Every structure is written in C-alpha cells, then in structure tokens.
User: Fold these one by one.
Assistant:
Number 1:
Amino acid sequence: MNENLQFLQAFLKNPLKVGAIAPSSPELAAKMLEGIEPAENNIVIELGVGTGAITKFLRPKIPHRDAYLGIELDRHLVRSLQRNFHDLHFVCGNACDLYSIHQKSGLGKVGYIICCLPFVSLPNDVGEKILRQVDKFMDEGCTFRTFQYAHGYYMPSAIKLREHMRNRYGRSKRSKLVVKNVPPAYTLTWHK
C-alpha cells in the first residue's frame, strides 16, 4: 500500500494518535537524524514510527539489529513496519510504557530518542507520562529529538513540552524551519 495512503488512513481512523495527515518528508527526516550514530550499546529508540518515513533514512545508519527499537501504537502499522523493515526491532506499544518496553527488549543503553509523537494533540496527562519516561533515559545521558509543526509551535501543549525539557535539560537546539514538509516543522534537540 502507498505510504501516503496508509498514513492518511491511520490519521482518519484516529487523528489524536496520528497527529498528521502525511508522513515526514525526506528533508525533515534528514534534520531529525543529524548526528545520530547508533551502536549496540548506544541504541536509538524511535517513538511513533508511523509508516517508517524516518526509519527508512535511519536504517542505513544502524550497524546491527540490536542498535534500534521502534515503538508504534497502531498494530496495523507495526505489521507493515515488520514486513518492510524485517531486520529491525519493532514493538506495538504505548510510549507511556517506554522504559519498561526497553527493559523487556534486552537491548543496550539508549543513546538517542527520536520522537515523532503528536504532543500538540495528546491529552496533557498522556504527554506528562511520556515525558517522565523520557526523563529516565535523559538521566543516563540520552539525546532527545522531536519536531513541532510551525502552525502548532505556540499551542499550550507544545510550549509545555519545551518548558518541561528546558527546566530539566536547558534550552533546546532548534533547527531552521524545514519548509519542505507538510506542514513545515522545526526539530528540537536536548542532551543532558
């Protein structure tokens, strides 16, 4: 199935969990992956993998299957990801359980979290639970990168995410606006 059609179907089925109408562009994927160098004991976790729009650009950077863990809530998308990227680890799970999912995986230390979750449309309590999970990895020296769409950058939930991270890890490194994406977006990076 066409990636754009698959993504649109997932969005229409559950817009609060998908949060976008199109997969991330190659330009946004490139920004999300700048400086990411996974290894077996410096793994990358991708949250909200979706159709694998970022995963397909991340895959060449992954030296070994045990250097990657993708977490996606939609079981239909997980099945598709497992078919398309059979050499990577995917789990159908909730980001609110991120730490325990990683523990159960038996994979190494987490060096990077690439987050594609729609914080702007998530309920506040869900967003807070996810950020508490992220904090557990940040305390161990992890780099956290996410993106926010330009049109939602000043929405209360987007501001809340940035404030949470800034209060704990300092100001983010914000990219220039990636205009070749629907909609345009910024990447935000924090490292403890």
Number 2:
Amino acid sequence: MKRLNILRRLLRSRSGVAMTEFALGAPFLMLAGIYGVEEANFVLVNMKINQIAAHIADNASRVGDTSQLQYRKVYESDINDVLVGAQVQAGQSINLFKYGRVIISSLEAVNQPGISNQLIHWQRCRGAETVSSSYGNEGTLVSGMGPAGKEVTAEPNDGVIFVEVRYTYQPLITGVLISNRQIRSIAAFNVRDSRDLSGGLYQRDTAKPDPVQSCNVYTGEIVIGTDGTMA
C-alpha cells in the first residue's frame, strides 16, 4: 500500500525539472552565445586594424631627418621603425605580421608636360600574408590610389603616404560563424614637410645598411636582436 501511494503521488505531481526542454534549447543558446562573442571580437579587431592603418600612414608621413637646409630625406630605418611601432600597437593577441600584411606606398605626382598620372615612387611591405597592393606596385604609373572614383592623388612637388593593411581574422572559438574573415583597411596622409622626392629611401650608413622591407618577401613577426638589429 505504501508503494502504491507513492506511485499515485508521482502520477498526480506537476512539479519537476524541465530536463527535456533544457536539453533541446541549450545547443541553440550556446550557439547564439558563441556567435555573439565571435562577432563582438571581430568588430574589435576590425576597429584595431583600421586604427593601425591610420597610425602607420600618419607616422610614415612625418618621418625623416630634421635638417632645415635641405628637403627632408627618409631612410629605410625610418620605415622599419614605423613597422616596429605598428607591431607593438597591434599586440601579441592580433599578431599583425604573422596573419596579415602592411603595404606602405609613396604616391607622388609626375612632373612632366603632358603626363597627368601619379607615380608610386617607392613601396615597402611587411607580413606573411601573400597579397600585393590592390592599387599598384612600386614604379607604376597610376591615376591615383584607392577605391574607384575615390582615388587619392598627390599634388605637384608633394607626396602622399598610402597604407594598405590586409589581415585574416583569427577566431577566439571557431571561424565557422564568420563568413568573411578577411579584414582590409586603407589610410592616406599628405607628407607633412618638404620631403626629398628625388631618390626614394636612403641608407644612413651604406657600409652597414638597414634591412629593406621588400614587397617580394613575405616575412612574419619582427624580431629585434640583442645587438639592436631587426630581423
């Protein structure tokens, strides 16, 4: 009789734990949570890449020697310093040069009668991502740099530093929920001072030249040796 009463109470009971409902709904809740975290992180990384592109263009437009007696020369070491600064700004969490690529171009006007094009005088790159400039390579005559209809151009006897950053987003949990993991950003700044536009980039010491960040080399993270040299 005691067991029968217990069974009757169980049959009449309307309390309990919604295990079935929870088991059915939990995967969807977890999926929504993962998607929200990934999407938020993707937006933050995108914003950081945009800021890095702007800072590189701004810094590269300011570098050069400080002589007031001649046009400012820009050296390979100056561009190297700009790239080292970009790596520090990006931080280890992004690892900019391992998963991306930075392309710095000096856009200058062609001062020849009858030629209205622009010249990409010099170009330096860093990063393991195997991509090239979307707007032209070093030594190329172009109508400008940038999206069609919104090209940036340089004024005569002046220069524009144009920066492209390409980066493959690295997911926190899974990349399945992010349909397009490629982040692209561009930025441009006019050269701040009267710059020597005749010779491109110079070496401070030709006997001990600084590394040249050639665009046909795809190298990742910058490493500074104990002797201060860059690799």
Number 3:
Amino acid sequence: MTPILGCRTAALANARQVTSKQQRGFTLLEIILVLAIIATASILVVPNLGGFEARTFNTQLRQAQSLLNFARRTAVISGQASTVSFSVIPIDEIGQADTDDGHTSLSNIVAQWNGAGVTLRFRDSTDREIEIEETTEVTFFPEGGSTGGMLLFAQADQTGVIDIDPFTGRVSSRDSEEEL
C-alpha cells in the first residue's frame, strides 16, 4: 500500500508544479477590476483638472475684493488713508511669471495684489478707461470715501468687475460685464 500512496502524493506534487507553471498571466476578472478602478479614478480626477483656470481666476478676483474691503476698514479704524496697490505680472514667452516689478512700497499701502496672466483695466468715475500695464492704486479715506472707480479683470474668456463707490467706499463685484 505504501507504494500506491507514494505514487499518489508524487502525482499530486507533479500536478501542482504543472499548474503553477501554467498560471503566469492575469485572469479576466482581475483585468476588468483594474480597468474599473482606473475608470472610476479618471471620472473623479479629470473634471477637476478642467476647471482649474476658472477657479484660479475666481480666487484672484475674490482676493482683490477682500484686499479692498480690508483697506477700507483699515482707513476707517486707523483714521489714516489706506491704499491697495494692484500690479499686473506679465507672462513671458516661457510661460513663467516675471516678478521683477521694481515697485517701491509707500507707508500707506496696506495691501498689494499681484495678478499673473490677468488683464486689468481701470475705469474712473468719468468713464475714462486705462489698461494697467504695471501698477495702479485705490485709496480709501478715513471718512469713508475712496478714489473710486471700476476694476475690470479678464483672463482668457472670463471677466470680472469690482466696483468701488467714490462716496461711500463700498466695494461690490460681479462676474462679468457686457461692455467689456
């Protein structure tokens, strides 16, 4: 009986070696599972990459409005004029931001906004409009007024407007304007 049992275990060991040598690839189920995981990840990631520029522009617009509101509050609380400086950083041929603006800060500048890749125009209370190539400033006074005007932001196909009331210094924004 021993020889039969010995042959049986030898045959089982030999069968295991043969099956282990044959299983070198992946099963269809494993491949489908990996493809499903990749498809799910791409559904979650790709839409977020598409709106990156839009979110960046909206963030820059909100930051500009926040700096203007901060300067307005600072002027009223401190009793001294407060200024926000807006600088446009041009994008050179390589796509890098050129940060060498050589601008010297004055003592009443409480905040500075730097926009990379954004076109900025300023429209004063007399509807005179100028494109900002380097720097412009908006000043708020302690009694609540300001230099006023309208800041017109544009990047690719997006536009945004920030209105500054010259009498009250109130700052308001909207996403776009028809006459840009």
Number 4:
Amino acid sequence: MTDRKRNRISRRQFLLAASGVATGLAFEPAGATVAEMRAAISKLVGPASVTNGRVTLELPPLVDNGNAVALAVRVDSPMTEADHVKAIHVFTEKNPQPYVATFRLGPRAGRARVATRVRLADSQTVVAICEMSDGTFWSDSVNVVVTLAACLEEQ
C-alpha cells in the first residue's frame, strides 16, 4: 500500500472536520450515560420503587445493525378498569437521549403489548418500565450487543 492511500481520509471524516471548522466547534458525538439514564428513570418514578417482574422486554441479545432494532414489551396485566397498564416507558444508557419512547395504554387496549423499532447507539442495556393504574412500577432489562452502532458518527 502506498503512503498516499494510507493517508487518505474518508468522505465522512472530511465532512465532519469541515463542518467543525465552518462552525468553529469541535464535533463531539452525543451520548447518554448510565447516570443520565438512572436520572431519567428517577424523574419518571419519583419516590416510588421499581420492581422487577410482570414486564417482558423482547430484544435480540446480538444485533448486527443498530439502525433498526426490533423491540417489543409485554406486561402481565388483566387490563381491567381496576388493574391495567397506564404507560410503558423505554430507556437506554448510551443513546443520545436516554428516554427513548412512551406508550400510553388503558383498560380498553385489551392487552398490554407494544412493538416498535429503535436505534441503538452502541452495545448497552435497554430498560422497559411499566406504570400500572395502582401507581406501581415494574421493569425488565436486556443487555444488547450491537456490532454496527447507530446514532453516532465517530470512526
């Protein structure tokens, strides 16, 4: 390999550097931390405690591409007027924003199950928290290994 080929930069690297020079800012990829995720969860639940159980987070343990990861959350609930799921919240520890999604449900939903696709910035833990009609919070978490990260533009 010649020195010329070895010293080439990619188009992405060039554009990132040029945009940093043009704006006078250094590019720093955004990403939440475990502490930020915990703070977001604490803000949601307040003084209440979060108990493991009743929630099943379905997410593949190994993901080839973090751009569109299938995610489903199922909650064991009779979905009656007296006992139903009010909301399902999804958090991640390394995405640019730790609070990924909220799904509002009620007793007329029939069953407590939601499914979507999310972007994952890196290998990380994903947490689903269910808010019940009686004010309790239940959770499940999954560790996901992402081989090709999304959300970040670093090389």
